[in-house]
Amino acid sequence: MTPTTPILELKEIAKHFGAIKAVDGVSFSVTPGECVGLVGDNGAGKSTIVKVISGYHPQTSGKLLIRGKEATFSSPLDSRKHKIETVYQNLALVEQLGVSANFFLGRELHTGWGRAIRYLDRNAMRVQAAEELQRIGISIQNADATVSDLSGGQRQSIAIARSIFWGSECLILDEPTAALGVNETNAVAELIQRVVNSGVSVLIVSHDIDLITKLCSRIVVLRQGKLWSKLKTSDVTAADIVHHITGTARAA
Question: Which letter does DSSP use for residue 149 in this model?
Fold first, then answer.
Protein backbone atom coordinates (compact mmCIF):
# COMPACT_ATOMS: atom_id res chain seq x y z
CA MET A 1 0.00 0.00 0.00
CA THR A 2 1.41 3.40 -0.99
CA PRO A 3 0.96 6.46 1.29
CA THR A 4 -1.78 7.73 -1.05
CA THR A 5 -3.73 4.45 -1.12
CA PRO A 6 -6.92 4.88 0.94
CA ILE A 7 -7.00 2.72 4.03
CA LEU A 8 -10.78 2.58 3.55
CA GLU A 9 -12.68 3.13 0.31
CA LEU A 10 -16.35 2.69 -0.55
CA LYS A 11 -17.33 2.40 -4.20
CA GLU A 12 -21.01 2.74 -5.11
CA ILE A 13 -22.12 1.06 -1.89
CA ALA A 14 -25.83 0.26 -1.70
CA LYS A 15 -27.78 -1.47 1.05
CA HIS A 16 -31.39 -2.46 0.49
CA PHE A 17 -33.79 -3.91 3.03
CA GLY A 18 -36.42 -5.41 0.77
CA ALA A 19 -37.85 -2.54 -1.26
CA ILE A 20 -36.29 0.05 1.04
CA LYS A 21 -33.03 1.57 -0.18
CA ALA A 22 -31.26 2.65 3.01
CA VAL A 23 -28.20 3.78 1.05
CA ASP A 24 -27.68 3.83 -2.69
CA GLY A 25 -24.47 4.54 -4.63
CA VAL A 26 -22.31 5.98 -1.83
CA SER A 27 -18.61 6.43 -2.59
CA PHE A 28 -15.88 8.01 -0.48
CA SER A 29 -12.48 7.20 0.98
CA VAL A 30 -10.30 7.76 4.03
CA THR A 31 -6.53 7.94 3.61
CA PRO A 32 -3.93 6.96 6.24
CA GLY A 33 -3.72 9.43 9.10
CA GLU A 34 -6.74 11.41 7.87
CA CYS A 35 -9.85 12.45 9.77
CA VAL A 36 -13.02 12.53 7.66
CA GLY A 37 -16.48 13.60 8.80
CA LEU A 38 -19.66 11.79 7.77
CA VAL A 39 -22.72 13.98 8.26
CA GLY A 40 -26.39 14.04 7.32
CA ASP A 41 -29.84 14.49 8.80
CA ASN A 42 -31.66 11.67 10.58
CA GLY A 43 -32.43 8.92 8.08
CA ALA A 44 -29.69 10.03 5.69
CA GLY A 45 -28.02 6.61 5.82
CA LYS A 46 -25.09 7.30 8.15
CA SER A 47 -25.81 4.41 10.53
CA THR A 48 -26.25 1.99 7.64
CA ILE A 49 -22.88 2.97 6.18
CA VAL A 50 -21.24 2.47 9.58
CA LYS A 51 -22.80 -0.98 9.89
CA VAL A 52 -21.59 -1.94 6.41
CA ILE A 53 -18.04 -0.89 7.28
CA SER A 54 -18.31 -2.64 10.66
CA GLY A 55 -19.50 -5.92 9.14
CA TYR A 56 -23.00 -5.91 10.61
CA HIS A 57 -24.74 -5.43 7.26
CA PRO A 58 -23.17 -6.85 4.08
CA GLN A 59 -23.75 -4.39 1.26
CA THR A 60 -26.32 -5.24 -1.41
CA SER A 61 -24.00 -3.97 -4.13
CA GLY A 62 -20.83 -1.96 -4.54
CA LYS A 63 -17.29 -2.58 -3.34
CA LEU A 64 -15.55 -2.13 -0.01
CA LEU A 65 -11.78 -1.76 -0.37
CA ILE A 66 -9.31 -1.99 2.50
CA ARG A 67 -5.80 -0.72 1.69
CA GLY A 68 -6.61 -1.00 -2.01
CA LYS A 69 -7.89 -4.58 -1.91
CA GLU A 70 -11.53 -5.59 -2.10
CA ALA A 71 -12.85 -7.06 1.14
CA THR A 72 -16.04 -8.87 2.07
CA PHE A 73 -17.31 -8.64 5.64
CA SER A 74 -19.81 -11.17 6.94
CA SER A 75 -19.45 -10.21 10.62
CA PRO A 76 -17.88 -7.55 12.86
CA LEU A 77 -14.98 -9.95 13.43
CA ASP A 78 -14.05 -9.63 9.74
CA SER A 79 -13.89 -5.85 10.11
CA ARG A 80 -11.67 -6.12 13.17
CA LYS A 81 -9.36 -8.56 11.40
CA HIS A 82 -8.74 -5.77 8.88
CA LYS A 83 -7.82 -3.46 11.80
CA ILE A 84 -11.04 -1.45 11.65
CA GLU A 85 -12.64 -0.72 15.02
CA THR A 86 -15.98 0.98 15.59
CA VAL A 87 -16.87 2.87 18.75
CA TYR A 88 -20.65 3.22 18.89
CA GLN A 89 -22.58 5.83 20.81
CA ASN A 90 -23.39 3.32 23.57
CA LEU A 91 -19.62 2.56 23.83
CA ALA A 92 -20.14 -1.19 24.54
CA LEU A 93 -18.78 -0.80 28.06
CA VAL A 94 -20.01 -2.83 31.04
CA GLU A 95 -20.68 -0.25 33.75
CA GLN A 96 -20.39 -2.75 36.62
CA LEU A 97 -16.82 -3.69 35.64
CA GLY A 98 -13.60 -1.79 36.14
CA VAL A 99 -11.56 0.06 33.54
CA SER A 100 -9.04 -2.73 32.94
CA ALA A 101 -11.78 -5.39 32.73
CA ASN A 102 -13.54 -3.32 30.06
CA PHE A 103 -10.27 -2.74 28.26
CA PHE A 104 -9.83 -6.48 27.77
CA LEU A 105 -13.52 -7.37 27.48
CA GLY A 106 -13.79 -10.47 25.29
CA ARG A 107 -10.01 -10.56 24.90
CA GLU A 108 -8.99 -11.33 28.48
CA LEU A 109 -5.43 -12.30 29.39
CA HIS A 110 -4.96 -15.61 31.19
CA THR A 111 -2.20 -17.29 33.11
CA GLY A 112 -1.79 -20.61 34.88
CA TRP A 113 -0.34 -24.03 34.20
CA GLY A 114 -0.98 -25.82 30.93
CA ARG A 115 -4.55 -26.02 29.67
CA ALA A 116 -6.06 -27.51 32.77
CA ILE A 117 -5.45 -24.67 35.23
CA ARG A 118 -6.15 -21.24 33.80
CA TYR A 119 -7.30 -18.02 35.42
CA LEU A 120 -7.57 -14.35 34.57
CA ASP A 121 -4.32 -12.42 34.79
CA ARG A 122 -5.90 -9.37 36.38
CA ASN A 123 -2.59 -7.76 37.28
CA ALA A 124 -1.26 -7.91 33.72
CA MET A 125 -4.52 -6.44 32.39
CA ARG A 126 -4.43 -3.69 35.01
CA VAL A 127 -0.83 -2.75 34.17
CA GLN A 128 -1.32 -2.79 30.39
CA ALA A 129 -4.55 -0.78 30.55
CA ALA A 130 -2.92 1.87 32.76
CA GLU A 131 0.13 2.08 30.47
CA GLU A 132 -1.99 2.50 27.34
CA LEU A 133 -4.20 5.17 28.90
CA GLN A 134 -1.13 7.08 30.03
CA ARG A 135 0.54 6.68 26.63
CA ILE A 136 -2.23 8.52 24.81
CA GLY A 137 -2.67 11.10 27.55
CA ILE A 138 -5.76 9.86 29.37
CA SER A 139 -5.82 10.52 33.10
CA ILE A 140 -7.57 7.75 35.05
CA GLN A 141 -6.38 7.54 38.65
CA ASN A 142 -7.30 3.90 39.14
CA ALA A 143 -7.38 1.25 36.41
CA ASP A 144 -9.76 -0.75 38.63
CA ALA A 145 -12.24 2.13 38.95
CA THR A 146 -15.76 1.03 38.13
CA VAL A 147 -16.90 2.48 34.81
CA SER A 148 -20.24 3.60 36.30
CA ASP A 149 -18.29 6.01 38.53
CA LEU A 150 -16.59 7.72 35.58
CA SER A 151 -17.73 10.75 33.59
CA GLY A 152 -19.10 10.48 30.07
CA GLY A 153 -15.90 11.91 28.63
CA GLN A 154 -13.76 9.40 30.52
CA ARG A 155 -15.92 6.53 29.27
CA GLN A 156 -15.61 7.72 25.68
CA SER A 157 -11.85 8.02 26.13
CA ILE A 158 -11.63 4.45 27.44
CA ALA A 159 -13.60 3.12 24.47
CA ILE A 160 -11.33 4.96 22.01
CA ALA A 161 -8.15 3.92 23.84
CA ARG A 162 -9.29 0.30 23.85
CA SER A 163 -9.71 0.38 20.06
CA ILE A 164 -6.25 1.85 19.55
CA PHE A 165 -4.70 -0.68 21.93
CA TRP A 166 -6.01 -3.56 19.82
CA GLY A 167 -4.18 -2.32 16.77
CA SER A 168 -6.85 -0.32 14.97
CA GLU A 169 -5.56 1.46 11.88
CA CYS A 170 -8.97 2.90 11.03
CA LEU A 171 -11.30 4.08 13.77
CA ILE A 172 -15.01 4.72 13.22
CA LEU A 173 -16.53 7.01 15.85
CA ASP A 174 -20.32 7.14 16.03
CA GLU A 175 -21.46 10.37 17.74
CA PRO A 176 -18.40 10.52 20.05
CA THR A 177 -19.52 13.65 21.90
CA ALA A 178 -23.26 13.00 22.18
CA ALA A 179 -24.59 14.02 25.62
CA LEU A 180 -21.20 15.40 26.72
CA GLY A 181 -20.70 18.84 28.23
CA VAL A 182 -18.44 21.49 26.73
CA ASN A 183 -15.32 20.60 28.75
CA GLU A 184 -15.68 16.87 28.13
CA THR A 185 -16.32 17.45 24.43
CA ASN A 186 -13.11 19.45 24.21
CA ALA A 187 -11.19 16.71 26.02
CA VAL A 188 -12.48 14.02 23.67
CA ALA A 189 -11.71 16.24 20.66
CA GLU A 190 -8.12 16.60 21.88
CA LEU A 191 -7.86 12.83 22.26
CA ILE A 192 -9.16 12.24 18.73
CA GLN A 193 -6.62 14.74 17.39
CA ARG A 194 -3.81 12.86 19.17
CA VAL A 195 -5.07 9.62 17.65
CA VAL A 196 -5.02 11.16 14.15
CA ASN A 197 -1.56 12.63 14.74
CA SER A 198 -0.34 9.13 15.62
CA GLY A 199 -1.22 7.99 12.09
CA VAL A 200 -4.57 6.31 12.72
CA SER A 201 -7.33 7.09 10.21
CA VAL A 202 -10.59 8.29 11.75
CA LEU A 203 -14.12 8.53 10.35
CA ILE A 204 -16.34 10.65 12.61
CA VAL A 205 -20.12 10.34 12.31
CA SER A 206 -21.65 13.25 14.13
CA HIS A 207 -24.32 15.94 14.27
CA ASP A 208 -21.81 18.21 16.03
CA ILE A 209 -20.74 20.49 13.20
CA ASP A 210 -18.24 22.34 15.38
CA LEU A 211 -16.47 19.05 16.15
CA ILE A 212 -16.46 18.09 12.48
CA THR A 213 -14.98 21.39 11.32
CA LYS A 214 -12.40 21.34 14.11
CA LEU A 215 -11.06 17.85 13.44
CA CYS A 216 -11.85 16.80 9.87
CA SER A 217 -9.98 17.74 6.71
CA ARG A 218 -12.85 16.54 4.50
CA ILE A 219 -16.59 16.10 4.97
CA VAL A 220 -18.94 13.62 3.29
CA VAL A 221 -22.59 14.63 3.27
CA LEU A 222 -25.37 12.05 2.88
CA ARG A 223 -28.93 12.97 2.08
CA GLN A 224 -31.86 10.54 1.80
CA GLY A 225 -29.52 7.58 1.44
CA LYS A 226 -27.41 9.08 -1.32
CA LEU A 227 -24.10 10.89 -1.50
CA TRP A 228 -24.95 14.60 -1.65
CA SER A 229 -21.60 16.36 -1.32
CA LYS A 230 -17.91 15.92 -0.68
CA LEU A 231 -16.51 19.05 0.91
CA LYS A 232 -13.08 20.31 1.85
CA THR A 233 -13.38 21.71 5.35
CA SER A 234 -11.14 24.69 4.62
CA ASP A 235 -13.48 25.76 1.80
CA VAL A 236 -16.74 25.88 3.78
CA THR A 237 -18.26 27.38 6.90
CA ALA A 238 -20.43 25.65 9.48
CA ALA A 239 -23.45 27.32 7.88
CA ASP A 240 -22.45 25.95 4.46
CA ILE A 241 -22.34 22.43 5.88
CA VAL A 242 -25.81 22.81 7.37
CA HIS A 243 -27.12 23.98 3.99
CA HIS A 244 -25.72 20.85 2.35
CA ILE A 245 -27.25 18.64 5.06
CA THR A 246 -30.68 20.22 4.56
CA GLY A 247 -30.40 20.23 0.78
CA THR A 248 -30.61 24.00 0.41
CA ALA A 249 -27.10 24.06 -1.05
CA ARG A 250 -26.36 22.59 -4.46
CA ALA A 251 -24.86 19.12 -4.33
CA ALA A 252 -21.10 19.12 -4.76
Answer: G
